[in-house]
Design a protein that fits this description.
heterodimer; A: 362 residues; alpha+beta; Cytochrome-c3 Hydrogenase, chain B; three-stranded antiparallel β-sheet; 8 strands
């Protein structure tokens, strides 16, 4: 049969942003694929070279509007490594709380997008309903629903508001009940399982070789979580279980879904411990205006490994900033996940990867 | 239990022993992070040694840096077993911005090198498809280079810049 290329995007309900997936099909079967990205390139690395260190935090927020705190935190961490700034314990705990709240909000946004991709419109409505609760918590903490501009080089912008732990416990208790409902909505849905199980497989060796990280790698059965492997902030003091796919070879859409879904519960556990353990004291250290040297930091973003590499040349602005976006690297591996499957599976596979175009295109 | 290779002591001892003369600088910058500076001609042997013998299986990031008198291509390699990072700086002369590609070892290098060529203009010899990835196909410059003008002159003027005239 004649093979030909089909453009899925740049405007397609599957893409959740502006990018193009070109797939080569033979009948219904995908023989090759090629992502086309760059529609949202804003030249972050160049812009950041002319803003002062502290002012760049507001830019890094906009890298991914779904999980902005994790991104500005990764940038602050890299700057702290370069400037040798030690964050006070209370500041570190506040960051852990805000990071995990943001992770839940980000994963719920992904769930809300993945549901209707596969025909579960209820998933969209439910997940967005619960996401709003966590955005309320973030608003209580930082004053903004999204793009919080909350972490600072040397700590956090402000202290926890009064009674924050009570609100956290209340919302998490409510959320746990809802998680059971989600399970019956997603896991028990026969259509959902048929469309995700055994689809979009990537082997463990391929995933490591192509630089796939985060939940997508843990879905292949590789136990890699930078919160555990290379603990930053106070993640070594909290008790949590990195979510790794344990049932068989994995690496398919369903395994990726399960790893992300179970992380919701783990993040709840971390928040509960963090608001109990948080000590009194200062929450922000003073950071120098100018810096020389280089520093890099890698964090476990909601989508994988986020790495910032910052070089300073003694000025008050970075000489060079490099952003390593997890989605950018996962995108390189999507042709492997797609090859051999049907045209209708593209939506199921790319939805489970959790694409965020803002951070991918920088 | 088999001995785990790829700790920072392993890298500090085995790498200079394997490549005498090739390592320009090697030091531990912070716990579990080793910084290695090499010349561009030694990139492939050093990387394949790190990958096969010391277990650095994850190529995390490739960043190109413009130092005005030379280029640097910086590789962050990661060992998933021991949690050690090697930051490998390959020095490239200014008049010939090209270096070997690492696609043979890590497929992850494919996109990183394309991006580095796109934004910084360093040619990675052996990359299967060195084309524009983030910028439009008909774009003619490499904007992350320091001689590419910034938009600051009209958009963002700091007090210090007004005083000093900027850089």
């Amino acid at each position: 049969m004649v093979e030909f290329w089909v453009n899925m995007g740049p405007q397609h309900p599957m893409t959740h942003g502006l990018w193009n997936m070109r797939v080569k099909i033979d009948g219904e079967t995908i023989t090759d694929a090629e992502p086309e990205i760059g529609y949202l390139h804003r030249g972050y690395e160049k812009i950041m070279e002319v803003r002062e260190f502290q002012k760049n935090v507001v830019l890094t927020d906009r890298l991914c509007y779904v999980s902005s705190i994790t991104w500005s935190h990764a940038y602050c961490l890299a700057c702290e490594k370069m400037m040798d700034v030690e964050v006070p314990p209370r500041g570190q705990w506040i960051r852990v709380i805000s990071l995990e709240l943001q992770r839940i909000a980000s994963h719920l946004m992904w769930l809300a997008a993945y549901g209707p991709d596969l025909g579960l419109l209820t998933g969209l409505l439910w997940a967005l309903r619960e996401r709003e609760l966590f955005l309320d918590l973030l608003q209580l903490l930082s004053g903004a629903r999204m793009n919080q501009n909350f972490p600072r080089i040397g700590g956090a912008r402000n202290d926890l508001p009064p009674d924050f732990d009570k609100y956290c416990f209340k919302i998490i208790k409510h959320f746990r009940e809802k998680l059971d409902e989600y399970e019956s909505l997603f896991h028990d849905s026969k259509i959902f399982r048929m469309r995700t199980e055994g689809v979009g497989r990537i082997s463990r060796a391929d995933a490591i070789n192509w630089g796939v990280t985060g939940p997508n790698l843990r879905a292949c059965g590789v136990n890699v979580d930078f919160r555990r492997l290379e603990p930053y902030e106070t993640y070594d003091e909290v008790d949590f279980e990195p979510q790794v796919w344990k049932g068989g070879d994995g690496g398919d859409s369903y395994a990726r879904f399960m790893c992300r879904f179970n992380e919701l519960e783990e993040s709840c556990r971390i928040i509960e411990q963090a608001v109990k353990k948080i000590p009194e004291g200062p929450y922000r250290a003073k950071a120098p205006r100018r810096a020389e040297g280089e520093g890099f930091a890698r964090t476990e973003d909601s989508r994988g490994e986020a790495l910032f590499y910052v070089i300073g040349d003694g000025d008050d602005r970075p000489y060079r900033v490099k952003i390593r976006s997890p989605v950018f690297c996962t995108m390189a591996a999507t042709p492997i996940m797609l090859r051999g499957y049907k045209m209708a599976d593209v939506v199921s596979i790319l939805g489970s990867v959790d694409v965020c175009v803002g951070e991918m295109d920088k | 239990m088999p001995e785990v290779s790829g700790t920072e002591e392993d890298v500090m001892s085995k790498l200079p022993a394997e490549f005498p003369g090739a390592i320009r600088e090697i030091r531990v910058t912070r716990p579990k992070v080793v910084k290695v500076v090499i010349d561009r001609k030694d990139l492939l042997p050093v990387c394949s040694f790190l990958k096969t013998d010391l277990g650095f299986e994850h190529l995390s990031c490739i960043s190109a840096v413009d130092w005005k008198d030379h280029w640097e291509s910086v590789y962050h390699l990661y060992n998933y077993t021991t949690g050690t990072t090697v930051q490998l700086n390959a020095v490239i002369p200014y008049d010939d911005p090209s270096i070997e590609s690492l696609v043979k070892l890590w497929n992850a290098a494919y996109y990183h090198e394309r991006e580095a060529w796109d934004l910084m203009g360093i040619t990675y010899r052996g990359n299967p498809k060195l084309e524009r990835i983030l910028l439009p196909k008909d774009f003619r410059y490499h904007p992350l280079r320091k001689d590419f003008p910034q938009e600051t002159e009209r958009q963002y003027i700091s007090r210090r810049k007004l005083k000093t005239g900027g850089r």
